[in-house]
Amino acid sequence: MKNTERFSTRVDNYIKYRPHYPVAVIPYLEAETGLTRHTIVADIGAGTGISAQPFLDNGNKVYAVEPNKDMREAAEKLLNRYPNFIAVNGSAEHTTLPDASVDLIVAGTAFHWFDQQATAAEFRRIGRENAKVVLMWNVRQSELPFEKGYEKLLHQYGTDYKDMQHRNVGASQLAGFFQPGTMQEKVFQNAQLFDFAALKGRLLSSSYVPEQGHPSYTPMMRALEDLFGKYKEQGMVKFHYETKLYLGTV
């Protein structure tokens, strides 16, 4: 399966159950990059628009570049109320945006799919003078008992979860992408509360778990029910995340 097609059957669950980004990202970028509502933003690998929305709420024009047709069309439906939202059929390596057309380039939980060298060249092409790049991920915490159990479930039933783990990107891997001395890191706390139906949707939003019809689907769901039953409080479980943000120039 092509990377651009991995989420085509996951769109509905992705929209409903993937974590959003903390509102605190906006004032942080205002302070560190001079972000205003006039800043032109390119959201690369925009998916269903989760990472575009904070900037749209801030009044920014956002070019949402997404190669997956199903996700791009979902974003268009969800965000058509924003006159400054522009969906673009393109990729990180070939955005189709004009030269020197954007002030801020954002990738939310997407950069690990990109070809870094080609992406850096493309970001330099589309960025105006002094354009900044923001790479951010919602990183699920795995040290708490419920999250440990969920992680164990993914290792047991995930079809290629171990391969996806190799795509985890941190400061050391990013040091070569940003210009020397320009990268800075910021961590925000984030969380989601789920009843069982939502927890099931959150699991199925991931491209590396089996879908209905796969031999592992039914035992995976039984394991998820057991996990939920063990850790629920007032009918809910909580995912804890760190939103890790990396800012710099390329």
From TrEMBL:
Keywords: Methyltransferase, Transferase. InterPro entries: Diverse_substrate_MTase, Methyltransf_11, SAM-dependent_MTases_sf. Residues 43-134 form the Methyltransferase type domain. Pfam families: Methyltransf_11 (PF08241). GO terms for biological process: methylation. The keyword Cell membrane does not apply. One of its GO terms (molecular function) is S-adenosylmethionine-dependent methyltransferase activity. Belongs to the methyltransferase superfamily. This is Methyltransferase domain-containing protein.
